[in-house]
Design a protein that fits this description.
The complex is a heterotrimer of chains A (378), B (497) and C (308). Chain A is 69% helix and 0% strand. Chain A is mostly helical. Chain A has 2 domains: 92 residues; 227 residues, no CATH class. In chain A, helix 11 runs parallel beside helix 13. Chain A is globular, with a radius of gyration of 22 Å. The two termini of chain A are 27 Å apart. Chain B folds into 2 domains: 229 residues, P-loop containing nucleotide triphosphate hydrolases (Rossmann fold, 3-Layer(aba) Sandwich), CATH 3.40.50; 154 residues, P-loop containing nucleotide triphosphate hydrolases (Rossmann fold, 3-Layer(aba) Sandwich), CATH 3.40.50. Chain B has a 6-stranded mixed beta sheet, sandwiched between helices. In chain B, strand 7, helix 6 and strand 8 form a beta-alpha-beta unit. With 308 residues, chain C is an all-alpha fold. Chain C has one domain. Classes of the chains: A mainly alpha (378), B alpha/beta (497), C mainly alpha (308).
Amino acid sequence: MKAIKKPKFIEVPFIGELALSGVRPILGIALGLLAGGVLIAVSGVNPFKAYKAMLQGAFGNRYAFSNVLVRSSPLLLGGIGVSLGIKAGVWNTGIEGYMYLGAVGAAVVGIPALGLPPVAHIILTLIVAMAFGAAWGLIPGYLRAYKGVNEVTSTIMLNYVAVFLTSWLVAEPQPLAEIGSFYPMSKLFQESAQLPILVRGTSLHPGAFIGLAVCVLLYFVLRYTPFGFRTRMLGFNPNAARYAGVNTRKQIMLLIIIGAMLGGLAGAIEVTGLKRRVYMNFVTGVGYESVAVALLAGGNPLGVIAAALFFSALKAGGATMSIQTNIGAPMTSVIIALCVIFVIGVGVSERRRLGKVQDNEKSEAVNEPKIKEEENVT
Amino acid sequence: MQDITKRFPGVLANDRISLECKKGEVLGLLGENGAGKTTLMNILYGLHQPDSGRIYVDGEEVRITSPSKAIHYGIGMVHQHFKLVDTLTVLENIILGIPSKKLLLDLAPARKYLLKLCEEYELFVDPDAEVGRLPVGQQQWVEILKALYRNVQILVFDEPTSVLTPAESDQLCRAIRRLTAEGRSIVFISHKLREVMEITDRVTIIRDGKFIGTIPTREATQLKLAQMMVGRPVSIVRKPRPALEEKKPVLVMKDVNVSDDRGVPALKNFNLIVNAGEILGVAGVDGNGQRELAECVVGLRKPASGTIHVRDRQITDVVADPSFVGFIPEDRQKTGLVLDFSVSENLIIKEYDKQPYIKNGVLKYPVIKKHARSMIEKYNLKTPSGEVKVRNLSGGNQQKVVIARELNLGPVLDIASQPTRGLDMGAVSNVHDTLLSERNRGAAVLFISAELQEVMALSDRIIVLFRGEIMGDIDGETADVSTIGQMMLGHPLEVGI
Amino acid sequence: MSLDMIVNWMQATLRWSVPLILVSTGEVFAERSGVINMGIEGIMLSGALCGIAVSFFTGGVFMAVLVTMALGAMMGLAVAFLTVSRRTNQVVTGLMINMLAMGGTNLLFALLSESRRTRVATFPVLFPQSMHNIPIIGPILFKQPISTWVALILPILSGIVLYKTTWGLNVRAVGDNPQSAATVGLSVIKIKYQTVVLSGIFAALGGCVLTLGEVGYFASGGMTAGRGFIVLAAVVVGGWDPFKTALACLVFGAADAAQLRFQAMGSVIPYQFLQMLPYLVTVIALTIMVEHSRVPKTWGAAYDRRDV
């Protein structure tokens, strides 16, 4: 039988792809913002005013924008961590747990005075944080790859475990805990372990730039290395990957662990760059937001940059909006969720369908749903 | 059915096809794979909507928009891939979807009626057995009983014998005769000439989605039907080949036991040797261990016991080395290719981490693209460029991509599992030529096919598989259909030839 | 441990299991038809707030239950529309519904802050005071609110619906082989919508019970604390069987209850570790049971009518 004809422009590399992949998110975001506006109006506030406040809060001045960058740091790292999994059809929803473990790892070497020079101490702190995150990710990674335990459930359960573990560590009488504090928190990090502030008078730390660098790096890794080739092959067709000699289980576990390392890094940056201590419940909801970032990006590392910056602008602007207009700050996460829902709901991928009719072979019911899950994402 | 036309995106599956089935007759619908038979019947059963054309039942024009409409008009269908729910019992499958006024399931009367039907048509099944655990043949009885339970007047069989043993096929024939004797009509879809000749009253032939003609079966001969079906004279001649030099074993399997996905033994104490420079054809009805045989030789499936050697190497892990073993898997779309990868990427999915495609840990796309260009030329791949996704190629060209990747480095052993399935005639003969030239190059070729004709046309030696055992090992030159047919039935070859 | 404490623990076990059992009832049907409704966490949360709010403003528990069920049905409908009609990824859809509910409840809760101080009307206790004093079974069973009794009968009822009714047969067929269900004239889409809406209703109800069953107040956005995901695990552990799933819910509820009892007792184990208990038990149970359970064949996969 003959091949399917597609519109010509789709075959132009890059531009065609971009046009195809770009329209849907933009339309979805527009609808999400519109729906958010309706909600704002319903709660009795002029949505134009609210969005204006939001814009100002995100881009009004350099303090505002530095705030956006600070907030983007965990979203960039978490988003790319989730994206890696999505590329191979794995839902690594444990970013929040990894962040807690990363913060704990950072605290273990960042709080005691080790007598190290600043740069070395920072690097040590970040590396230990990544190791802690990776160790935590090993659990759901192993369970998913070798035992078939659904990674969404296991990572979310482990998120709660990580939260309680951290609460215990920063509560008295544990050695890391601040003495006599009103709220469970750790002691201050050593000066030498704290990330520098880049612009005086703001809280801008290098976290966002580390996140950007990781995204760009992983873009090239996915495209141009055997590791990336294996990952993409696994995501598109796990059977073929197995047949081509890829150890698919190991690859799945590795991807979850790398995601966990990045989550750990994000957590460490959050505490050494911004909070200066590990507080009980120092992040809530960033894990979900990272998934949203990855989804909006369609698993593409460069898309993660755009999505993370967009969401952090929403969050930073949302804080200003809530001060100026009395709309609660949670409105931003409502808007984020709406945007993603519209993005995934707007266009049903027809591409896969066309392929199916093309050959006369019938595709039988799916035996491995876990792996087929990601058809709408890539 | 009159002037039925159905287009899929980019494909004209049915082009103004008409057919007519009279009361109490068996109408054969004959055509090659991909000729549009199944599409046509899916339209009749309401699974697809025609773009144009009309359907009449008992002289009245009807619009069949869904399977329930089809059932309403008394049309039933036994699908090629059974539409049964494996995890439900036979009885539950049969009553599934029948409208009931009662809130609770009322199984007792249904069981009684089912047992009566079993008796009447001599199609015996246990109503309480779980369908997934039944042998394939019995599953087909369930499909037939399901239709009869709904008291259909027109029953469509889509390639019913492809999964049956000859004895079961006979049983099916008896049931079909009884049905027609009661005045019901049967549409019998097949691409096998012999059974069409045996069972049908008239035959409608379609080719490439077009209506070719309808003739009464008694006026037809196998040769005539074949010509109508293929569009040119066909012959089952063996391709000429140089003589085998010396016998050097390449693949040696010793006492191999392998289970299938459900854990049922698929190969039992299996011993096999394939020599260099020979094509060993594996014949047999589908599902008698062929798939497992291919998979365990390439290491995708671990045998429970026994050893497999290729040359001196024992096969324990997946062999992803096309300079050693080439494997053309049975389902190219599910296993052989990554449809969303480009042609050039698909050409190296086994070698992406080897020289020269990689340097200092980075993939060398210029080299990969260059390799693709040379492969496109060498294997006469029809594609706009190497950067097109394989999804957009035709079936024949997709298979060429697999072949180019697997055979280009000249492996010592080639395994071709149903390599011509779903391909058109041109592509089939291309695959045959390729396998033959591999043999002449000196490779050992394990050729697995459910199409007896191509096994006989191509093989130097033929083995027949039945329920995971070898029924006989005969010379390809002197093999005849009836001997092999007997072995496919499960009668082992008595005396060696 | 004294008998008193054991009785106390068992009573708490039942109470903590009830919301889980309610939520799982709907989820079993949704997953049996092939749809994983991962949004139950969020729907639970919405139901919890909705129940409290309606009860607060109208004072009627019955009214609260009705409105909550309606809300659950709406949210279920949204999930069904996205996953069934638009064929969006079920994981993504669920997670985003959760995020939406988390933000939404936080927003609304801020508006309803007066209710924080007031305890609203809760579910009535079915049996007379005199029966509460029967040793052992009195406090365990008869002191329970009506919701507990509903939750105890529900698994049996849903077992009958799933295995003994025509509709139940249809649901099982749709989840295992939608193509075959379609070829015998069933509307796969319709059945999936029905089960997913059902899972929405029960999830909201479960949330409502969480607040109106005993405590009578809404804590915060995080008050469901991952219980929706615990239910998802319970369904897998229970092998997609209503009765076994309810048993799994009981085990998880027991872990939850034990955690609270131990904390109250002031045990040597730090309370944070006790808090982890239900989550750890869930992961461990999932790991042990996952290999033994038979997954509905099209679990989590999108269905398209054109796949013939």
